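hiii so my PI (J.) wants the whole complex modelled not just the main chain, which honestly fair. so below is everything: two entries, each one labled with what it is. i double checked the lines twice but i was tired so who knows lol
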Amino acid sequence: MAVGKEIRLKIASIKNTQKITRAMEKVATSKMRKTQLRMQATRPYAKKIAQIIKHLAHANPEYKHPFMEQRVVRKVGVIVVSSDRGLCGGLNSNLFRMLLRQMRTWSGEQVEIQLATIGQKAASFLGGAGLPVVAQVTKLGDTPHLEDLIGVIKVMLDDYSAGKIDALYVAYNEFVNTMTQRPTLDHLLPVHTSEIAEELSGHWDYLYEPDAKEVLDDLLIRYTESIVFQGLVENNACEQAARMVAMKSASDNAGKLINELQLIYNKARQAAITQEISEIVGGAAAV
Amino acid sequence: MVMTIHVDIVSAEEQIYSGLAEMVVAPAEEGDVGIAARHAPLLTRLKPGEVRVKVDDKETLPFFVSGGILEVQPHVVSVLADRAVRAHDLDEAAALQAKQRAEEALKDRSGKQDLARVQRELLEAVEQLRMLERWRKHR
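here's the output for the full assembly
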């Protein structure tokens, strides 16, 4: 029957799309579980090292490490963590929007900016917008390793040591739960002293072996690396969660669309049949 | 009753151990250090080797760390290891293999190798083997 051929083709094509989105949803669901486990596994280390840094900020070291000194901020560095692939809802654009808003505030205060990007999306968006990107790394996959990040972080740390930038931030999506991912901008350097824990007040300092400079150098670099890495791992979990949700709603929408089209098709078909019958009846009566 | 100290051992990949202990012995860069409760605050780098956690008179837990950082507060000891494994998870065959590989790489002086890295790998493998041996004798 010739009726509604276009509609049938359209339904078939939407069904194909739905198959793809469903498959992507399933893949994202299983990947999300894995990335979430990874995220939880690396958390204790990041937490512990942050704690040590906090202790350190309360100590009264004779040696003042450049990473712990507050300077007048004329230029800031931001490490931006994004996903490599798209089709994950508003995950990356939310992050970029927050970043751009912050950058506007900075430029209002005459503060210059330089960026380092992790992930394809940040590289193409921020690089494409003509912003100063000094380092980038892409295609880290679902199981990133700390070694992959060391280069990017080193560029920023070297600039910080050389006095080219006066503060370092990292921007990533924080994993709140499957439905919520919060774009976050964390202040990394200089290490800032927050509220003083009571048991740590008073004048004291660590014993350092072999000496303060070497140990602190090592510790602070590790600290930066672990925070950025934690950001990346969290962003990965966010990516999979966001993709899962986006693909689920895409599949649902496709289903809705198919239902509507099916209804239209059935109506058209019924109308054609009714018309044919009435034509036949009309023809018979005329004879 | 002996004073105890809280010990946390974490590696970049997971939390390895968390609990109370009488004493911890760790391979600091300048020689092994033993830490009991109320130790002065200390911050030091670790070299590859064995961390022993003495839980009580009967039980001592050995761990292998591949290097990292040790922080001591009067009531908390934190070991931040690059890589840490419980002793009974150590794989002798893998350690032997790693040692062989590193030794071969050292012989091959074509200049393509990163000497510092290879030496570090060798040291790690040797320490693992030494620890396995000691541990086996102990049982």
